[in-house]
Amino acid sequence: MTAIQGFADMEYPMMVNDASIEDLKDSRLTLDHEVAHTYFPFYMGTNETRYAFMDEGWATAFEYLIGIEENGKTYADSAFKALRVQRYIQDPSAEQDQPIITMSSQLSGVGYGNNAYVKPALAYLALKDLLGDTLFKKALHQYMVNWNGKHPIPWDFFILLIQLLNKT
Ligand SMILES: [Zn+2]
């Protein structure tokens, strides 16, 4: 993986081109997010045009979880709330607060950002809390093994979760 501070905040296979900022802790969170895209969408083949939450949501959740390992929970919580959660919870527009599963092409502006990034990340993190780390990791890994490069749609993840929960 090659990562540079350039100007795009964008992931590419084996390359990250992020904005040039002086705060290296903040820069590293963005880097973590872009590297997480190696798995979603690149490894999985999710359709980021139709269901952006399937890659941006995971990348945003991973950015938080990796941030805990790198900088500790206090900093990670603070950064996640400031960078991701505040804009969503302070958005008063009910019109923009659509179900996460809404196709990305039917969303715009802040509504797109909320649906693609923070709402699914919070849902994945809530799922992690509900399942516990072991079952969550098992479900995530099974999902990745089953659907690597096969273009999963949201229901493929839901069905896997139901199957795993029925076995426990
Ligand atoms: Zn992203």
Explain this structure.
The protein is mainly alpha-helical. The chain has a single domain, classed as Neutral Protease Domain 2 (Neutral Protease, domain 2), CATH 1.10.390.10. It is built from seven helices and three strands. The chain is globular. The N and C termini lie far apart (38 Å). It binds zinc ion.
SSE layout:
Elements: E1 2-6, E2 10-12, E3 15-19, H1 24-36, H2 38-43, H3 53-71, H4 73-89, H5 109-131, H6 133-147, H7 154-167
Parallel strand pairs: 1-3
Antiparallel strand pairs: 2-3
Helix pairs in contact: 1-3, 3-4, 3-5, 4-5, 5-6, 6-7
Bound molecules: zinc ion.
Zinc ion is lined by residues 33, 37, 56, 59.
Helical content band: 55-70%
- Spell out which ligands are present: zinc ion
CATH superfamily: Neutral Protease Domain 2
Number of domains: 1
Give the oligomeric state of the chains in this entry, treating copies of one chain as homo and distinct chains as hetero.
single chain
Q: Which structural class matches the secondary elements?
A: mainly alpha
- By CATH reckoning, the class would read Mainly Alpha
